[in-house]
Specification:
This protein is an alpha/beta fold. The protein has 3 helices and 7 strands, in the order E-H-H-E-E-E-E-H-E-E. Helix 1 (16-29) packs antiparallel against helix 2. The longest helix has 14 residues, at 16-29.
């Protein structure tokens, strides 16, 4: 069951194990990034949380490639949502511990969220497309 939507935000869905890992990550980052930590914890709290097998393939999860439009600038961006240690903005890998990363998690194509950027300005981000990473192939 989806919890109430904070500030009229769209409903979001998260993978149970990712939600747990992201909550731990947000708590550990609270001292150095209190705003983003709080935003991410708020999203986790309001998310409908399910097992990975129950999450539709078009939901933004960790590792997803996400095409979205920043409606303030009209910019169409495609990024991969990653954990902080994998982040590299020049390679299009955006950390979940950034305002944009925390805002994208759990959304689906067609959904928009009004979300603060790094400078605190509210931006409307609209999801265009979500692509999941190919399953890892282990050498046999």
């Amino acid at each position: 069951m989806t919890r109430s939507n904070a500030a009229g935000r769209p409903p979001i869905t998260m993978i149970d194990t990712e939600a747990d890992a992201l909550a731990d990550l947000a708590m550990s980052a609270a001292g150095r990034s209190p705003e983003v930590s709080s935003l991410l914890l708020g999203e986790i709290d309001r998310a409908s949380v399910h097992a990975r097998s129950a999450i539709p393939g078009d939901v933004v999860t960790m590792g997803s490639m996400v095409e979205f439009i920043d409606e303030a600038s009209g910019a169409d961006r495609t990024v991969e949502l990653v954990y902080p240690r994998q982040a590299d903005i020049s390679a299009g890998r955006v950390s979940i511990l950034t305002p944009v990363g925390a805002g994208l998690i759990g959304l689906r194509p067609g959904q928009s969220i009004v979300w603060p950027d790094r400078s605190g300005h509210q931006r409307r981000l609209t999801i265009v497309k979500v692509t999941q990473p190919a399953p890892s192939v282990l050498p046999g």
